Write the structure tokens for this entry.
Amino acid sequence: MSLLELSNVRVQYGAITALKELDLRVEEGELVALVGSNGAGKTTTLSAIAGVHKASSGSIVFDGKPIHTRRSADIARRGIALVPEDRGIFPSLTIEENLRLGSYLVRDKKSVASELERVFDRFPILKERARQGAGTLSGGEQQQLAIARALLSQPRLLMLDEPSLGLSPTLVDLMFEIIKQLHEEGVTVLLVEQNVTRAMALADRAYVLTTGTLTAHGTPQEIMSSIDIATAYLGGAPRAEKEN
Amino acid sequence: MDGVLQFVLNSVSLGSVYSLFALGLIMVFGILKLVNFAYGELIMVAGYTWFVLQGSILPLVVVVIVAVLVAALTSVLTERVAFRPVRSNSINAMLITSFAVSTLLQNSALVIVSPRARAVDVPLFFYNNINLGGVQISMSNVVVIIVSAITLFGLLLLMQKTRLGITLRAAADDFRMLQLLGVRADNVIVSAFAISGVLAGIAGFLWISRIGSVSPTIGMAPLLIALIAIVVGGMNSLSGAIVGGFFLGTLTIALQLLLPQEMLAFRDAVIFAVVILVLVFRPQGIVKGRFATERIG
């Protein structure tokens, strides 16, 4: 049984169909990449899984239980963490307070403390600036904080939405290095990326979305050989749809 | 010198009550972007609880605590019964609901108690003056300042140090993200309403002890004061509410002193004029805050 399984998921924003009958699965311990051009429905897919936007039809099953009717807080409680594209940092809180909210769901204080230590080892900059306001962080630091906060919830599935977006090349390298490490440590990751080469290099499997429709899936090698990535990237469909 | 000290004390006293009013209103506004027009009625409910219990053997402190709890409970109940069902609708639906709740509570008091004002027994020592180095200070001012200071300090501690406080501040920043971290929206909102009710209860007690009576419409002035205070102080942070409250309090006392006798009737008009002037130069209010301006239910 897959950890996460989407069957026939359709998402509408009013009259616009952002996602058409998507089938997708993520196995425990896998790193799955979801790639495609702007507006292909990648963010929508993550939003639907996290319960931010409800699927209008189809089912989303996590760990054997349907979650598509649940609220986002309840979905998070089942072990799905989303790092959104805008990072969702709380600017009026300190870094420490942001992290504290990450472990909101973890009751065991010891485990919170040890997890915090691991996170600080991984992201030393956050430890250095723990008492600083999160609103003062740079984009790269905010991205690190967002990932750190998500890890503190000790998720069974970590969903990252464009973690490399807007970062300098050095930070992009760092971000992919961190994702690689997390994967090696056994964290299950669903990664949305526009940086297709980098994402493919890390992923066990990948899905390619084109204007709300799945156009390819399989191992990175299979995908690279079977389809013309450029077409998928340029939109491919007669009309491009807007992604919210 | 006497005059200056007197002025400062009166301003601090009135300003701190206004700040508490404003804080109670912004508590809910910060998270739901809802100006809760039923807020004034929480003050009324606290006042009537005082009125009902004053004949009993309970000491004043206990009566006040019960009154504050009743205000908090009423606040939570209005959330549960009236606001929660319409929360997923537009902000306008919430706003209309708050008017409805306000009217309902006012009319309940009208029917159950009386349309006329009822006197509350303000303890006599409130009217005493104490002499501090030749300056006469009224006890009521002392009580107001001490109670407000404790309340403000307690609120600060709650917001800065506790998990609930951090959660509430985060909700004002980005409620959607908070839910993605597993925090249930209902719990956060109920807590905000409860704190709002506690603040309304405490400030209401101080307010009513100045007036000496409670009536069905007693909450209207505090609501208006709170609203103006948060608009002029800045609607996007708790400190804005505090600044706005003290600004209005000080302005009111100053005008009381400075305006000639025949102009005193127009004091409020002058206050509003000054408020408009402030907003012309600082449309965001005195304090620029960081709350999210977008409403995400």
